[in-house]
TrEMBL record:
The keyword Disulfide bond does not apply. It is found in: Cytoplasm. The keyword rRNA-binding applies. Keywords: Cytoplasm, Endonuclease, Hydrolase, Magnesium, Metal-binding, Nuclease, RNA-binding, rRNA processing, rRNA-binding, tRNA processing, tRNA-binding. Residues 38-120 form the S1 motif domain. Its cofactor is Mg(2+). Belongs to the RNase E/G family. RNase G subfamily. This is Ribonuclease G. InterPro entries: RNA-bd_AU-1/RNase_E/G, RNase_E/G, RNase_E_G_thioredoxin-like, S1_domain. It holds the Pfam family RNase_E_G. The lineage of its organism: Bacteria, Bacillati, Bacillota, Clostridia, Eubacteriales.
Length: 502
């Protein structure tokens, strides 16, 4: 059973795709950071980079967009062997571009001059004379039927591609979709001549309406949303473009969070974790950088029931299925390296690759499995279009700066010594109160506060150590006092407050 669950709130919209109650895809759109992929802009070239065969284009966003030469070459120059970016664009030139990849991290959006307008069943390419059919439509008779229809419908000097959702559709349905796209293009074509760059000419649909257009097809059994106003809007759109799916749209009326009801919230937090457990007891570890993702497969608690070779093969095959799912769910792109458990024969490796490739067939994003290297590592690539789910839901830790590590207790103790020595040299303090994380206090007490006593002798300062729950592992608070009695009174006052709370 396939379900689309939409959680609409004041700050964001989240769309979850469930397959047999399991979360396989998640899309998030925030009110203050709408997506730009699919948007068309009138931009201005700000810098041509011959060494990189690319140019920067100001499209009115925070960061300038990046235009590669292959995305800038007009159709009449596409046959040329070597085209320089200087032959295609000039500094200061106004140019019509479409975003094909979101701005991620420090990089601006990637844009193209080869515009595409997606409909429900077709994609219109205004500048390219071409006919294409989705690779996911496998039946040769159906491909021939669709190609014949397209040859009749295609406007001159334009291109059309049939999307996967177009499989089995009648000529009338495809014609209506094309009619809508041609009207949209006429509007965009007029708009591009108006106003100065940079400006937006066309904005793609919002997340909910894109979901209806791109995902809500006959293989979706249920579409549920928790917002009544948006539910009514969805009903109007579905009745217009897919009336046969009208009864599959539901309004969630229960007085509880829709993602909690479908257990999606729990699955989301599992999806951003580093370790993913397999049903057998094995697990995979996912480590990500900006351009590279490394996935390590481990047998974990799974010991098998036949022999080691069988255990390894079963774990690797189960991991292959889970890896394909995690790539979709986390929307991991770029270079991916998988370290499967070592297999001793080529037959086992082929089995695992077949399982992985089969599992990847459900993924709409283009993925290439390149094979296993001499080091026994699987190499693959996946097209990167938007930021990973983890990067959308999380931000870099301000304490560890993204390393995933904090200072050890011994390093904090070293910092205590450094601070006390500084106070001894530069002040007339008789005592210091040092607040630390309880783990640091416990380590100091473990050897009878020997470190503290030695530091008191060296510095000639009385030292009071206090463990405080809200102090981070990396931090310490130091209060230097001219008199020991004042610190003792502060500690006594804190102890009294603590007893009152108890």
């Amino acid at each position: 059973m396939n379900e689309i669950i939409v959680n609409s709130s004041l700050s964001q919209t989240r769309v979850a795709l469930l397959e047999d109650k399991e979360l396989v895809e998640l899309y998030i759109e925030r009110e203050n950071s709408k997506r730009t992929v699919g948007n068309i802009y009138k931009g201005r070239v700000t810098n041509v980079l011959p060494g990189m065969q690319a140019a920067f284009v100001d499209i009115g966003c925070e960061k300038n967009a990046f235009l590669f030469v292959k995305d800038a070459i007009p159709p009449e120059m596409s046959g040329s062997k070597e085209v320089s970016i200087r032959d295609v664009v000039k500094n200061g030139q106004e140019i019509i571009v479409q975003v094909i990849k979101e701005s991620i991290g420090t990089k601006g959006a990637r844009v193209t001059t080869h515009l595409t307008l997606p409909g429900r069943y077709l994609v219109l390419m205004p500048y390219i004379d071409y006919i294409g059919i989705s690779r996911r439509i496998n039946d040769e008779e159906e491909r021939d039927r669709l190609r014949n229809i397209l040859e009749e419908l295609k406007p001159s000097n334009m291109g059309i591609i049939v999307r996967t959702a177009g499989e089995g559709k009648t000529e009338k349905e495809l014609k209506e979709d094309l009619k809508f796209l041609l009207k949209l293009w006429q509007k965009i074509d007029k708009e591009k001549h108006l106003g100065f760059a940079p400006r937006v000419i066309y904005k793609d649909l919002d997340l909910i309406h894109r979901t209806i257009r791109d995902m809500f097809t006959g293989n979706i059994d249920k579409f549920v949303i928790n917002d009544k106003e948006k539910y009514n809007s969805i009903i109007d759109l579905v009745e217009l473009i897919a009336p046969h799916l009208r009864n599959r749209v539901e309004f969630f009326e229960m007085d509880m969070d829709i993602f909690d009801y479908y257990r999606i919230e729990k699955m989301i937090y599992e999806a951003i974790g580093r370790k993913v457990w397999l049903k057998s007891g094995g697990y995979i570890i996912i480590d990500q950088t900006e351009a590279l993702t490394v996935i390590d497969v481990n047998t974990g608690k799974y010991v098998g029931s036949i022999d080691l070779e069988d255990t390894v093969l079963r774990t690797n095959k189960e991991a292959a299925i889970e890896i394909a799912k995690q790539l979709r769910l986390r929307d991991i792109g770029g270079i991916i390296i998988v370290d499967f458990i070592d297999m001793n024969n080529d037959g086992a490796e082929r089995e695992v690759l077949e399982v992985l490739e089969k599992a990847l067939e459900k993924d709409k994003t283009k993925t290439n499995v390149l094979g296993i290297t001499q080091l026994g590592l699987l190499e693959m690539t996946r097209k990167k279009i938007r930021g990973r789910i983890g990067s959308i839901m999380q931000r870099k830790c301000p304490y560890c700066d993204g390393t995933g590590n904090v200072l050890s207790e011994y390093t904090v103790i070293q910092n205590i010594e450094k601070e006390v020595r500084r106070i001894a040299v530069h002040t007339n303090a008789q005592a210091v109160l040092i607040e630390v994380n309880p783990s640091v206090e416990a380590l100091l007490k473990a050897d009878g506060n020997r470190f503290v006593h030695e530091l008191e002798e060296i510095s000639n300062i009385k030292i009071f150590i206090e463990g405080v729950d809200h102090i981070h592992n990396n931090h310490l608070n130091v209060k230097a006092m001219g008199k020991i009695e004042k610190i003792e009174s502060i500690i006594a006052e804190k102890n009294n407050d603590f007893r009152k709370k108890e």
